[in-house]
Amino acid sequence: MDSSKRLNRREFITSAAAFAATFSIVPSHVVSGTGHIPPSDQITIANIGCGTQGLREMGSMLQNPNLRVVAVCDVNRFSTDYIDWSPFGLRNNIRNVLKNNSWWENVPGIPGGRDPGKEYVEQYYAKNKPSGIFRGCASYEDFRELLEEVKDLDAVKIMTPDHTHASIALAAMEKGIHVITHKPISNKLIEGRKVIDKATETGVITHLLAWSDRPEYRQMKTWMDEGLIGELLEIHNWSYRPVWEQWTKRPEEIISVPDGFNWKLWLGPVPDMPYHPNYTHNTFRGWYDFGGGSVADMGHYSLFPLFETLVITRPPESVRAFGTTTREAINQVYQWVVNDVAFPASCIIKWKFPEQPALPGFDLFWYDGGMKPFAPEELESEGKDIPEEGLMIVGTKGKILGGFRGENPVLLPERRMSERPGFERINSSEVERPRDTWVDDILAGRQSQGSFIRAKTITDTINLGAVALQAGKSINFEAESCKITNDENANKLLARKYRAGWEI
After folding, report:
1. pLDDT below 70 — which residues of the chain?
2. Contact in structure between 159 and 52 (CB atoms under 8 Å)
3. pTM (2 decimals)?
Protein backbone atom coordinates (compact mmCIF):
# COMPACT_ATOMS: atom_id res chain seq x y z
CA MET A 1 0.00 0.00 0.00
CA ASP A 2 1.56 3.33 -1.00
CA SER A 3 1.65 6.35 1.30
CA SER A 4 -1.22 8.14 -0.39
CA LYS A 5 -3.49 5.13 0.08
CA ARG A 6 -2.48 4.95 3.74
CA LEU A 7 -3.41 8.58 4.28
CA ASN A 8 -6.67 8.10 2.41
CA ARG A 9 -7.47 5.11 4.61
CA ARG A 10 -6.80 7.14 7.74
CA GLU A 11 -8.80 10.11 6.44
CA PHE A 12 -11.71 7.81 5.62
CA ILE A 13 -11.69 6.24 9.07
CA THR A 14 -11.47 9.64 10.75
CA SER A 15 -14.35 10.97 8.66
CA ALA A 16 -16.42 7.87 9.36
CA ALA A 17 -15.78 8.22 13.09
CA ALA A 18 -16.88 11.84 13.00
CA PHE A 19 -20.06 10.88 11.09
CA ALA A 20 -20.87 8.14 13.59
CA ALA A 21 -20.35 10.56 16.47
CA THR A 22 -23.34 12.59 15.29
CA PHE A 23 -25.56 9.61 16.17
CA SER A 24 -23.89 8.27 19.31
CA ILE A 25 -21.12 9.51 21.54
CA VAL A 26 -18.85 6.73 22.80
CA PRO A 27 -15.80 7.49 24.95
CA SER A 28 -12.67 6.86 22.95
CA HIS A 29 -11.13 4.74 25.69
CA VAL A 30 -14.02 2.30 25.30
CA VAL A 31 -13.24 2.00 21.61
CA SER A 32 -9.50 1.73 21.93
CA GLY A 33 -8.95 -0.13 25.16
CA THR A 34 -5.32 1.02 25.19
CA GLY A 35 -5.61 4.78 25.52
CA HIS A 36 -7.78 7.68 24.44
CA ILE A 37 -7.24 7.47 20.68
CA PRO A 38 -9.02 4.70 18.74
CA PRO A 39 -6.64 2.19 17.12
CA SER A 40 -7.95 3.21 13.70
CA ASP A 41 -6.47 6.68 14.22
CA GLN A 42 -3.11 5.50 15.53
CA ILE A 43 0.07 4.99 13.52
CA THR A 44 0.90 1.30 13.56
CA ILE A 45 4.65 0.84 13.92
CA ALA A 46 7.13 -2.02 14.16
CA ASN A 47 10.34 -1.70 16.16
CA ILE A 48 13.18 -3.47 14.35
CA GLY A 49 16.13 -3.92 16.68
CA CYS A 50 15.65 -4.65 20.38
CA GLY A 51 19.11 -4.05 21.80
CA THR A 52 19.83 -1.57 24.57
CA GLN A 53 19.08 1.52 22.48
CA GLY A 54 16.01 -0.01 20.86
CA LEU A 55 14.51 -0.96 24.23
CA ARG A 56 15.52 2.34 25.83
CA GLU A 57 13.62 4.31 23.20
CA MET A 58 10.64 1.96 23.17
CA GLY A 59 9.09 3.72 26.14
CA SER A 60 8.53 7.00 24.30
CA MET A 61 6.69 5.14 21.54
CA LEU A 62 4.54 3.17 23.96
CA GLN A 63 3.59 6.33 25.84
CA ASN A 64 2.72 8.25 22.68
CA PRO A 65 -1.07 7.96 22.20
CA ASN A 66 -0.71 8.47 18.45
CA LEU A 67 1.40 5.32 18.08
CA ARG A 68 0.61 1.63 18.45
CA VAL A 69 3.55 -0.78 18.49
CA VAL A 70 2.25 -3.88 16.71
CA ALA A 71 5.47 -5.85 16.15
CA VAL A 72 9.06 -6.19 17.28
CA CYS A 73 11.96 -7.79 15.47
CA ASP A 74 15.47 -8.86 16.41
CA VAL A 75 17.84 -11.59 15.23
CA ASN A 76 18.48 -12.37 18.91
CA ARG A 77 15.72 -14.11 20.85
CA PHE A 78 17.00 -13.19 24.30
CA SER A 79 20.29 -12.82 26.12
CA THR A 80 21.76 -10.83 29.00
CA ASP A 81 25.20 -10.14 27.52
CA TYR A 82 24.48 -6.61 26.26
CA ILE A 83 26.77 -3.70 27.14
CA ASP A 84 25.32 -0.42 28.37
CA TRP A 85 26.08 2.78 30.27
CA SER A 86 25.27 1.28 33.67
CA PRO A 87 24.30 -2.15 35.04
CA PHE A 88 20.70 -1.23 35.85
CA GLY A 89 19.97 1.89 33.80
CA LEU A 90 18.00 0.15 31.05
CA ARG A 91 16.13 -2.09 33.47
CA ASN A 92 15.14 0.88 35.62
CA ASN A 93 14.08 2.86 32.55
CA ILE A 94 11.70 0.07 31.56
CA ARG A 95 10.44 -0.29 35.13
CA ASN A 96 9.60 3.40 35.23
CA VAL A 97 7.59 3.17 32.01
CA LEU A 98 5.77 0.02 33.13
CA LYS A 99 5.40 1.30 36.71
CA ASN A 100 6.54 -2.17 37.69
CA ASN A 101 9.51 -2.32 40.06
CA SER A 102 9.84 -6.08 39.70
CA TRP A 103 10.41 -6.25 35.93
CA TRP A 104 13.29 -8.69 35.26
CA GLU A 105 13.89 -8.85 39.01
CA ASN A 106 15.84 -12.11 39.02
CA VAL A 107 17.58 -11.78 35.66
CA PRO A 108 21.34 -11.06 35.93
CA GLY A 109 23.15 -8.98 33.33
CA ILE A 110 21.67 -6.54 30.82
CA PRO A 111 18.77 -7.97 28.78
CA GLY A 112 18.00 -7.55 25.11
CA GLY A 113 16.36 -9.32 22.19
CA ARG A 114 12.92 -9.75 20.70
CA ASP A 115 11.46 -11.65 23.69
CA PRO A 116 12.11 -8.79 26.15
CA GLY A 117 10.87 -6.37 23.48
CA LYS A 118 7.60 -8.24 23.04
CA GLU A 119 7.12 -8.59 26.80
CA TYR A 120 7.75 -4.87 27.27
CA VAL A 121 5.13 -3.92 24.70
CA GLU A 122 2.52 -6.34 25.94
CA GLN A 123 2.97 -5.49 29.61
CA TYR A 124 2.58 -1.80 28.84
CA TYR A 125 -0.59 -2.18 26.79
CA ALA A 126 -2.01 -4.71 29.26
CA LYS A 127 -2.14 -1.99 31.92
CA ASN A 128 -4.94 -0.33 29.98
CA LYS A 129 -6.94 -3.51 29.42
CA PRO A 130 -9.75 -4.40 31.85
CA SER A 131 -8.45 -7.98 31.83
CA GLY A 132 -4.86 -6.89 32.47
CA ILE A 133 -3.79 -9.05 29.53
CA PHE A 134 -2.62 -8.01 26.07
CA ARG A 135 -1.37 -10.35 23.36
CA GLY A 136 -1.27 -8.06 20.36
CA CYS A 137 2.45 -7.68 19.63
CA ALA A 138 3.90 -9.90 16.91
CA SER A 139 7.53 -11.01 17.20
CA TYR A 140 9.90 -11.76 14.34
CA GLU A 141 13.48 -12.88 13.84
CA ASP A 142 13.62 -11.75 10.19
CA PHE A 143 12.53 -8.22 9.20
CA ARG A 144 11.58 -9.49 5.74
CA GLU A 145 8.95 -11.79 7.21
CA LEU A 146 7.65 -8.97 9.37
CA LEU A 147 7.21 -6.67 6.37
CA GLU A 148 5.47 -9.44 4.45
CA GLU A 149 3.11 -10.63 7.18
CA VAL A 150 2.12 -7.63 9.31
CA LYS A 151 -0.85 -6.05 7.58
CA ASP A 152 -1.73 -2.34 7.58
CA LEU A 153 1.70 -1.44 8.94
CA ASP A 154 2.25 2.31 8.69
CA ALA A 155 5.86 2.70 9.80
CA VAL A 156 9.01 0.98 10.97
CA LYS A 157 11.65 2.25 13.37
CA ILE A 158 15.11 0.85 12.58
CA MET A 159 17.33 0.31 15.63
CA THR A 160 19.69 -2.34 14.24
CA PRO A 161 23.47 -2.15 13.63
CA ASP A 162 24.49 0.34 10.94
CA HIS A 163 25.23 -2.17 8.18
CA THR A 164 21.60 -3.33 7.96
CA HIS A 165 19.89 0.08 7.95
CA ALA A 166 19.81 0.38 4.17
CA SER A 167 18.48 -3.13 3.53
CA ILE A 168 15.61 -2.66 5.97
CA ALA A 169 14.78 0.88 4.86
CA LEU A 170 14.67 -0.06 1.17
CA ALA A 171 12.48 -3.11 1.81
CA ALA A 172 10.04 -1.03 3.88
CA MET A 173 9.84 1.86 1.41
CA GLU A 174 9.24 -0.60 -1.42
CA LYS A 175 6.01 -1.50 0.39
CA GLY A 176 5.03 2.14 0.96
CA ILE A 177 5.90 2.02 4.65
CA HIS A 178 7.25 5.11 6.42
CA VAL A 179 10.77 4.75 7.81
CA ILE A 180 12.34 6.15 10.97
CA THR A 181 15.97 5.22 11.56
CA HIS A 182 18.86 5.84 13.85
CA LYS A 183 22.00 7.19 12.27
CA PRO A 184 23.46 6.51 9.81
CA ILE A 185 21.17 5.96 6.84
CA SER A 186 23.95 3.61 5.73
CA ASN A 187 27.61 3.12 6.56
CA LYS A 188 28.39 2.96 2.82
CA LEU A 189 28.02 6.03 0.60
CA ILE A 190 26.44 4.38 -2.43
CA GLU A 191 23.94 2.51 -0.26
CA GLY A 192 23.03 5.78 1.41
CA ARG A 193 22.35 7.41 -1.94
CA LYS A 194 20.15 4.50 -3.01
CA VAL A 195 18.08 4.83 0.15
CA ILE A 196 17.70 8.58 -0.37
CA ASP A 197 16.73 8.03 -4.02
CA LYS A 198 14.08 5.51 -2.95
CA ALA A 199 12.71 7.95 -0.38
CA THR A 200 12.40 10.57 -3.11
CA GLU A 201 10.82 8.11 -5.53
CA THR A 202 8.21 6.67 -3.15
CA GLY A 203 7.32 9.82 -1.23
CA VAL A 204 6.95 7.93 2.05
CA ILE A 205 7.70 9.90 5.21
CA THR A 206 11.26 9.34 6.39
CA HIS A 207 13.15 10.63 9.40
CA LEU A 208 16.77 10.39 10.51
CA LEU A 209 16.68 10.50 14.29
CA ALA A 210 19.94 12.47 14.51
CA TRP A 211 18.03 15.59 13.47
CA SER A 212 17.10 18.02 16.24
CA ASP A 213 15.89 21.58 16.47
CA ARG A 214 18.91 23.75 17.33
CA PRO A 215 18.14 27.41 18.15
CA GLU A 216 21.84 27.64 19.01
CA TYR A 217 22.72 27.11 15.36
CA ARG A 218 20.21 29.71 14.28
CA GLN A 219 21.89 32.18 16.64
CA MET A 220 25.29 31.29 15.20
CA LYS A 221 23.95 31.88 11.71
CA THR A 222 22.56 35.27 12.78
CA TRP A 223 26.01 36.31 13.98
CA MET A 224 27.56 35.04 10.75
CA ASP A 225 24.98 36.87 8.63
CA GLU A 226 25.74 40.09 10.54
CA GLY A 227 29.39 39.69 9.60
CA LEU A 228 30.56 39.39 13.21
CA ILE A 229 33.15 36.72 12.37
CA GLY A 230 33.82 37.81 8.80
CA GLU A 231 33.97 35.25 6.02
CA LEU A 232 33.72 31.58 7.02
CA LEU A 233 37.05 29.71 6.94
CA GLU A 234 36.70 26.59 9.10
CA ILE A 235 34.29 24.55 11.21
CA HIS A 236 35.73 22.33 13.97
CA ASN A 237 33.79 19.59 15.79
CA TRP A 238 35.25 17.23 18.39
CA SER A 239 34.10 14.36 20.60
CA TYR A 240 35.71 12.17 23.26
CA ARG A 241 34.14 9.09 21.61
CA PRO A 242 34.49 6.14 21.04
CA VAL A 243 32.99 4.76 24.23
CA TRP A 244 33.33 1.14 23.08
CA GLU A 245 36.38 -1.11 22.93
CA GLN A 246 38.30 -0.59 19.71
CA TRP A 247 40.34 -3.31 17.99
CA THR A 248 42.94 -3.32 15.22
CA LYS A 249 42.54 -6.92 14.02
CA ARG A 250 39.76 -9.41 13.56
CA PRO A 251 39.40 -11.84 16.47
CA GLU A 252 40.98 -15.23 15.83
CA GLU A 253 39.47 -17.37 18.59
CA ILE A 254 36.59 -19.64 17.64
CA ILE A 255 33.43 -19.06 19.65
CA SER A 256 30.13 -20.86 19.19
CA VAL A 257 27.10 -18.85 18.13
CA PRO A 258 24.84 -18.42 21.19
CA ASP A 259 21.51 -20.23 21.24
CA GLY A 260 18.74 -18.05 19.88
CA PHE A 261 21.10 -15.75 17.97
CA ASN A 262 20.84 -15.86 14.16
CA TRP A 263 24.39 -14.92 13.15
CA LYS A 264 23.77 -15.21 9.40
CA LEU A 265 20.82 -12.87 9.66
CA TRP A 266 22.82 -10.48 11.84
CA LEU A 267 25.49 -10.32 9.12
CA GLY A 268 22.80 -9.38 6.60
CA PRO A 269 24.53 -7.97 3.50
CA VAL A 270 28.07 -8.56 4.81
CA PRO A 271 29.93 -11.63 3.45
CA ASP A 272 30.24 -14.65 5.73
CA MET A 273 32.75 -14.59 8.56
CA PRO A 274 33.01 -16.49 11.86
CA TYR A 275 30.88 -15.30 14.76
CA HIS A 276 32.52 -13.37 17.57
CA PRO A 277 30.91 -11.26 20.32
CA ASN A 278 33.42 -8.46 19.63
CA TYR A 279 31.39 -7.68 16.50
CA THR A 280 27.94 -7.57 18.03
CA HIS A 281 25.79 -5.50 20.34
CA ASN A 282 27.32 -2.15 21.26
CA THR A 283 30.75 -2.81 19.70
CA PHE A 284 29.64 -3.09 16.05
CA ARG A 285 30.23 0.64 15.49
CA GLY A 286 34.00 0.24 15.55
CA TRP A 287 34.24 -2.06 12.51
CA TYR A 288 34.32 -0.80 8.92
CA ASP A 289 31.98 -3.64 7.86
CA PHE A 290 29.35 -3.02 10.50
CA GLY A 291 29.57 0.57 11.73
CA GLY A 292 30.59 4.10 10.96
CA GLY A 293 32.95 4.84 13.84
CA SER A 294 32.65 7.78 16.20
CA VAL A 295 32.17 10.21 13.34
CA ALA A 296 28.96 8.44 12.29
CA ASP A 297 27.88 7.69 15.83
CA MET A 298 28.10 11.31 16.97
CA GLY A 299 28.85 13.50 13.95
CA HIS A 300 25.31 13.12 12.61
CA TYR A 301 23.92 14.67 15.80
CA SER A 302 26.07 17.77 15.58
CA LEU A 303 26.55 18.24 11.85
CA PHE A 304 23.21 17.28 10.28
CA PRO A 305 21.31 20.15 11.98
CA LEU A 306 24.25 22.48 11.33
CA PHE A 307 24.26 21.62 7.62
CA GLU A 308 20.53 22.31 7.53
CA THR A 309 20.86 25.66 9.30
CA LEU A 310 23.77 26.91 7.19
CA VAL A 311 22.31 25.41 3.98
CA ILE A 312 25.33 23.21 3.28
CA THR A 313 23.99 21.22 0.34
CA ARG A 314 27.10 20.48 -1.73
CA PRO A 315 29.28 17.59 -0.55
CA PRO A 316 33.03 17.89 0.01
CA GLU A 317 35.41 17.87 -2.93
CA SER A 318 38.31 16.28 -1.06
CA VAL A 319 38.95 14.51 2.24
CA ARG A 320 42.08 13.68 4.25
CA ALA A 321 42.20 11.69 7.47
CA PHE A 322 44.74 10.50 10.01
CA GLY A 323 44.21 7.81 12.65
CA THR A 324 46.22 6.40 15.51
CA THR A 325 48.56 3.51 14.70
CA THR A 326 50.28 0.84 16.75
CA ARG A 327 52.90 -1.90 16.57
CA GLU A 328 53.19 -5.39 18.00
CA ALA A 329 56.19 -7.56 18.86
CA ILE A 330 56.61 -10.59 16.58
CA ASN A 331 59.67 -12.76 17.23
CA GLN A 332 61.08 -9.99 19.39
CA VAL A 333 60.78 -7.42 16.61
CA TYR A 334 58.23 -4.59 16.59
CA GLN A 335 56.16 -4.56 13.41
CA TRP A 336 53.41 -2.29 12.16
CA VAL A 337 49.88 -3.50 12.74
CA VAL A 338 48.11 -3.10 9.42
CA ASN A 339 44.57 -2.15 10.35
CA ASP A 340 42.19 -2.32 7.41
CA VAL A 341 39.22 -3.67 9.35
CA ALA A 342 38.41 -1.20 12.13
CA PHE A 343 38.27 2.50 12.86
CA PRO A 344 41.26 3.87 14.78
CA ALA A 345 41.04 4.64 18.48
CA SER A 346 41.28 8.33 17.57
CA CYS A 347 41.34 10.29 14.35
CA ILE A 348 41.30 13.68 12.67
CA ILE A 349 39.38 14.19 9.42
CA LYS A 350 39.48 17.24 7.16
CA TRP A 351 36.88 17.82 4.45
CA LYS A 352 37.24 20.61 1.89
CA PHE A 353 33.83 21.94 0.87
CA PRO A 354 33.10 23.94 -2.26
CA GLU A 355 31.18 27.19 -2.27
CA GLN A 356 27.65 26.76 -0.88
CA PRO A 357 24.44 28.69 -1.73
CA ALA A 358 25.21 31.30 0.95
CA LEU A 359 28.75 30.41 2.06
CA PRO A 360 32.23 30.48 0.56
CA GLY A 361 34.27 27.30 0.33
CA PHE A 362 35.45 26.16 3.77
CA ASP A 363 37.19 23.35 5.64
CA LEU A 364 35.44 21.08 8.13
CA PHE A 365 37.50 19.29 10.80
CA TRP A 366 36.45 16.31 12.94
CA TYR A 367 38.38 15.04 15.98
CA ASP A 368 37.66 12.06 18.24
CA GLY A 369 39.26 9.71 20.74
CA GLY A 370 40.65 12.54 22.85
CA MET A 371 41.88 14.63 19.93
CA LYS A 372 40.69 18.24 19.69
CA PRO A 373 41.91 21.59 18.36
CA PHE A 374 44.30 23.69 20.40
CA ALA A 375 42.60 26.52 22.25
CA PRO A 376 42.49 29.68 20.13
CA GLU A 377 44.40 32.76 21.23
CA GLU A 378 41.19 34.38 22.45
CA LEU A 379 40.92 31.67 25.14
CA GLU A 380 44.61 31.05 25.78
CA SER A 381 45.18 34.70 26.65
CA GLU A 382 42.58 34.33 29.41
CA GLY A 383 44.03 31.04 30.68
CA LYS A 384 41.08 29.05 29.34
CA ASP A 385 40.81 25.89 27.25
CA ILE A 386 38.17 24.58 24.88
CA PRO A 387 35.67 22.06 26.31
CA GLU A 388 36.10 18.28 26.20
CA GLU A 389 33.56 18.17 23.38
CA GLY A 390 32.65 21.16 21.27
CA LEU A 391 32.05 23.01 18.05
CA MET A 392 33.91 26.09 16.83
CA ILE A 393 33.27 28.22 13.76
CA VAL A 394 36.26 30.24 12.54
CA GLY A 395 35.98 33.28 10.31
CA THR A 396 38.33 35.94 9.00
CA LYS A 397 37.33 38.34 11.80
CA GLY A 398 36.36 36.16 14.73
CA LYS A 399 35.18 32.87 16.14
CA ILE A 400 32.10 31.25 17.67
CA LEU A 401 32.46 28.54 20.32
CA GLY A 402 29.82 26.18 21.65
CA GLY A 403 29.31 22.71 23.06
CA PHE A 404 29.36 19.61 20.88
CA ARG A 405 26.01 20.49 19.32
CA GLY A 406 26.51 24.22 19.68
CA GLU A 407 25.23 24.42 23.24
CA ASN A 408 25.59 27.80 24.96
CA PRO A 409 27.26 29.50 21.98
CA VAL A 410 29.42 32.58 22.50
CA LEU A 411 31.43 34.93 20.36
CA LEU A 412 35.17 34.94 21.06
CA PRO A 413 36.60 36.68 22.90
CA GLU A 414 33.62 36.22 25.20
CA ARG A 415 33.67 39.86 26.29
CA ARG A 416 32.08 40.59 22.92
CA MET A 417 28.89 39.08 24.31
CA SER A 418 28.48 42.10 26.61
CA GLU A 419 27.91 44.18 23.49
CA ARG A 420 25.08 41.92 22.30
CA PRO A 421 21.40 41.79 23.35
CA GLY A 422 20.81 39.56 26.36
CA PHE A 423 18.47 37.22 24.48
CA GLU A 424 21.37 36.13 22.26
CA ARG A 425 22.99 34.29 25.18
CA ILE A 426 21.27 30.91 25.01
CA ASN A 427 21.18 28.62 28.04
CA SER A 428 20.85 25.28 26.29
CA SER A 429 19.76 23.48 29.44
CA GLU A 430 16.55 25.54 29.34
CA VAL A 431 15.80 25.02 25.65
CA GLU A 432 12.67 22.95 25.05
CA ARG A 433 13.25 20.78 22.00
CA PRO A 434 10.34 19.08 20.23
CA ARG A 435 10.55 15.28 20.47
CA ASP A 436 9.21 12.62 18.13
CA THR A 437 8.23 15.25 15.56
CA TRP A 438 8.06 12.48 12.97
CA VAL A 439 4.82 11.26 14.55
CA ASP A 440 3.04 14.52 13.75
CA ASP A 441 4.62 14.53 10.29
CA ILE A 442 3.24 11.09 9.46
CA LEU A 443 -0.22 12.05 10.72
CA ALA A 444 -0.11 15.25 8.65
CA GLY A 445 1.29 13.51 5.57
CA ARG A 446 4.28 15.84 5.28
CA GLN A 447 7.99 15.19 5.04
CA SER A 448 9.89 15.59 8.29
CA GLN A 449 12.62 18.14 8.88
CA GLY A 450 14.94 15.19 9.38
CA SER A 451 13.89 13.57 6.10
CA PHE A 452 16.35 11.28 4.32
CA ILE A 453 15.95 13.56 1.32
CA ARG A 454 17.52 16.40 3.30
CA ALA A 455 20.31 14.19 4.62
CA LYS A 456 22.19 13.55 1.38
CA THR A 457 25.09 15.91 2.09
CA ILE A 458 25.66 14.72 5.65
CA THR A 459 25.46 11.08 4.52
CA ASP A 460 28.04 11.66 1.79
CA THR A 461 30.27 13.62 4.15
CA ILE A 462 30.36 11.08 6.99
CA ASN A 463 30.93 8.13 4.66
CA LEU A 464 33.69 9.92 2.76
CA GLY A 465 35.46 10.41 6.08
CA ALA A 466 35.47 6.66 6.62
CA VAL A 467 36.76 6.08 3.10
CA ALA A 468 39.63 8.53 3.65
CA LEU A 469 40.61 6.71 6.85
CA GLN A 470 40.72 3.39 5.01
CA ALA A 471 42.47 4.78 1.94
CA GLY A 472 45.23 6.38 4.00
CA LYS A 473 45.56 9.28 1.60
CA SER A 474 43.79 12.39 0.39
CA ILE A 475 40.84 11.51 -1.83
CA ASN A 476 39.11 13.72 -4.39
CA PHE A 477 35.36 13.24 -4.80
CA GLU A 478 33.20 14.07 -7.81
CA ALA A 479 29.67 14.33 -6.48
CA GLU A 480 27.68 14.08 -9.70
CA SER A 481 29.30 10.85 -10.87
CA CYS A 482 29.73 9.66 -7.27
CA LYS A 483 33.35 8.71 -7.86
CA ILE A 484 36.73 9.21 -6.27
CA THR A 485 38.82 10.57 -9.10
CA ASN A 486 42.38 10.06 -7.83
CA ASP A 487 42.31 6.49 -6.46
CA GLU A 488 40.49 3.67 -8.23
CA ASN A 489 40.89 1.33 -5.27
CA ALA A 490 39.25 3.85 -2.96
CA ASN A 491 36.15 3.76 -5.18
CA LYS A 492 35.56 0.20 -4.00
CA LEU A 493 35.18 1.55 -0.47
CA LEU A 494 32.13 3.60 -1.47
CA ALA A 495 30.11 0.37 -1.64
CA ARG A 496 30.28 -3.06 -0.04
CA LYS A 497 30.79 -6.56 -1.33
CA TYR A 498 27.44 -8.28 -0.81
CA ARG A 499 26.61 -11.68 0.50
CA ALA A 500 24.52 -13.62 -2.01
CA GLY A 501 20.85 -12.71 -1.79
CA TRP A 502 21.46 -9.34 -0.12
CA GLU A 503 22.47 -7.28 -3.12
CA ILE A 504 21.16 -3.71 -3.27
Report:
1. 1-36
2. no
3. 0.92
